[in-house]
Amino acid sequence: MGIHDGHRGRMKQEFLQGGLESFSDPRALELLLFYSRRQGDVNPTAHALLDAFGSLAGVLDADPKELMEVPGVGENTAILLKLVPALAARYLASRTSAETIIRSSADLRELFSPYFFSARNEMSYLACFDGKLKLLGVRKLSEGGPNDTDIAPRQIAAAALSFNATAVVLAHNHTSGVATPSDADISTTRYIRQVLQSINIQLYDHVIMTDDDMVSMRDSGYFQGFF
Question: Tag placement on the chain: N or C end, fewer CB within 10 Å?
Answer without folding.
Answer: C
